[in-house]
Amino acid sequence: MPIQDSIMMPQAEPLTVALAPAQNALHSLFSLIKAEHLSGLGDWVYRTAERLTAQERQRHRLVMIGLHYAVMPEQIWPSFPAYLEHLARCNPMTLHDRMLTSYASIAPLAAEKVLPCADIYPVDYNAVLKDTESYLDFLKERFPVKVIDEELEVQAYRYVIDPPAMRTLIVEHLRHMWDKYLADEWQLVLPMLEDAVSAFQQTNFSAMERFEAARFITGQELEAQHRQDIFACARRVVFVPSAHIGPYLRHVTTNDETYWVIFGARLPEGSQFHAPDLSRTEIVVRLNALADDTRLRILKCIAERGEAASQEVMAALELSQSAASRHLKQLSATGYLTERRCNGAKCYRLNPKRVEDTLRAIAAFLLGSTGE
Q: Averaged over 14-27, what is the pLDDT?
């Protein structure tokens, strides 16, 4: 049930763009779980997901979902191996307490009042950990039943009540995944990520509201995915460029009131920073959304109607709900579609500006800035 985390945080700017190697690597590993549900992620994600053995896949889900809050760091570590060394040395109870505190900071579904950021809801931890049923009931109070994998959470419970075993599992699994799958890839994408951080660090955000800065950094409209009150109450906001997230965003709120936003590595709009790999990467993400016959037909269908609900798209193109959802999610994340709620459903419109911007970006990359 990924959503939050804890460890000591150094003094930092209230809003920054950072490489954050530990958060970056963990997000890439977390993306492996999303490979079968999302299109448009980085190629490394799909290649690696296919290579996982059944045992690796099962253990990866247990660590990244069932023990998620014990895994995710708050501090920006200089490297992922440095964070692994920290995990190997830390008190197992630290991970145990961090995980339970993170869950306790999530508002119960039946809560009449949502507490301010970083506040903890009263929880009797002894009662929660009494047995598997109590633990599952605790999770069901905070998450819709449909998103809870009970078999996975029962496995997680066995480690939550045995902190030394939990620490061993987390460290051994993450070290295995890093050594076997991610270390070489990290070295390949590191220069591009460093370029993205450098380009944004040349921007002065002091005159921008946080929500405005978020739009500028991610290149996306955030209203549908992020509430402004989260930006307002967070002690600081850290944006982390990823080589593998594609057009999507991921956000994590940690117990120290830090709001982390993982976004696709890109250059700031209008930047004079020379980074061909970043320009090419953003173009590939946009073209990937168009390089599919079904997605092109969806765009054409919506353009002809002016606006269409997801059910209308499904009926017109004879798509299953899961297929339509996957394609619409990618087209919206890439900016080709705008969405709004209408009569309880999502309705979509074509975004002509994004189509024009994509064509200009391709021309500028191939022909030079003048396109002549």
A: 94
